[in-house]
Design a protein that fits this description.
677 residues, alpha+beta, two-stranded antiparallel ribbon
Amino acid sequence: EDTVFRRAIWLSVLKPIALFYISSKGRDALEAVYRVVRIVIGVLCVELFLILSFAAVACQIYSDFPGFEDLSSAFLSLFKLSTTVVNPSIWMPVYESTTSSAFFFILFVVTSVFYIHSLVLSVVFQTYMQAMSEIRDRTRSDREDALRLAFLTMQKYGDWESQSLKLVHVRVLGQALALLRPHYGPMKINALLQIVEPDSDGYIDYKTFRMKVPKALRTSLMSTRPTTIFSLALELLAFAVAVSNLVYVIMVSSSFKAHWWNSVMMPVGSLIALLGIIELILRCDFLKIFGVASPTRLDGTFDGLAAFAGALSLYGILRYVLHLESGIEFFLIGRSIDMVRFMRFFGLCRDIVKRTGQVLPAVIGPLVLVVTAMHIFTYIGMAIWGGAVHVGMYGEAITPLYDLNNFNTYSAGLVTMFQVLVVNDWHAIAEVYTLADRFSSDIIVYTFFIGANLFGVSILLNVLTAFFVGAFVTKVSGSGNADVSNTTTNRQSDIVVESIRTVQSFSSMDMYRSLTDDSVSETKTNSGLEFTVSERQCFDKIMNTVAGGGDENDSGAAQKACEYLEVFESLTPGRDKVGYMVCCHKTSDRIGNRRFEVITKNYLNEDIMHVIVSDMHRELIDLAFNALDNEGNNDFTVERTFQSKNPAGERLILSAALLEEEPPVSLITARVAYFQD
């Protein structure tokens, strides 16, 4: 029976496979971690070898001190020191006897903690960014195919002229947007069409469709709330309630004691709670039922917590009035939670909360990996030590209460593995298992806990750190004389947390007003409804940021290359002209001269031309990546040849080369040659 139980435990290790089966984000994160492990394992071996080398020296010099009697004990002591859980207690006895020993232990701490651990973090960060960049490129390719199929489908639903010119009619695109945004009215759909093509004559080509439709799909339109005396008074009330509640909670929680305060504590707190609830109700959208428009917009996080705190406070007041137990406790817990209301008045707090809400869906993959690792190590611990640790039986032989960190149950095992991931006192937890009924050998115990520390902390938690560093990346403007419109998303601040692209007003009388990208001004019309336009940070946008991608409007490298080529053309009037196109991998921009389109259209239609350009660009990137891995020469080109449709003996030659490797920018030229050349 015990054998069957242990087989069931070992098979339970495979349960997380279902998570990766249903979650593409989990599979992507697993692929990224697999690449990280292949590289980081070498760095971790270097770290272990350095600890072994220091341990060999320590057991020769300090063998008279506890923890350094032989090589194995010295290695274990120094590994604990490398995780800082025994610093400086492990070497203070040696230091008391020989002050010069400080040089040895300080050198070890600097080498292992400051250098090796930073090296591991940097390797994990770089490898994870590279892996996520490749995964992002794969999804970008799928998105390109989806956009191309959508364009061809919309052509079929257009009129005869749009099908013959291979364009999409704006009416068809508007119908598609209405299906994707069923809660948008006609004016908002027209506003989205303005983002796609402000000066449209009724038709949209594939280039515009490919660049602007994804931006329109990420755009969120909200009706502008006018500033009125009522809205200003409501904001003043909200600020007064937040400050009053903050002062109230501080006074209640502090050591302040007075007879008069005890008599007014509940009445004053109840008044603050009721004012907070009233302020929240006045800003709710359901006031439209009574024909009253809400003057301000609710915040899901802050106002949600405020609503929960208000409900908890009302419950506490009710219990207090009915003379039931814990009424004051419930009330004060609600008031303490409502302290978060005060953070709503600070822009940095609002930005951090918004960015956190945007990042959380994308962090599912790394979190699934961490939970999976905890699950696997928990079941391994249950198979080895399940029921072998007896709580309350070890007395002073262990740190008090640390025998609660056991694998007797699944929940207790998860708590134990969480304690190990936090790092602090993992060695004290391991000491409990040296007294277990079975498998209490130091080799088995410390192999398990050191392995959990290396994999869970050095790899998985560093992957999480890499993800959040990428997601909350700071973008600082590098141009001193840049125009304001180009620095909207590059504010010089501690953390850039939201990209508000455009703020523009639309009138119901003039729905085709030009919409300028990255405008920071709000123009008001004489009539009608106004919208605030902002770009939603969807999953692809978050992963683009995590992988080091830039702004879609950041096409400086491609634009500069085209400017250089134009200067070259102007300086060589006698040479045969060629068509050229510059492709920026980071922004998906394709910028070129008119001649490229003129030359290629006799051989390829526009859709096929874009497919071939994408294939050549990706092939260049793959060649550059392989050359970097093999330390080879990165001077290479890619070429495609196409026969002419007429029997004139002509052929089209497309040649491509990389201009920059990071970010990848390629130059593709088009020229016509003859067979006799």
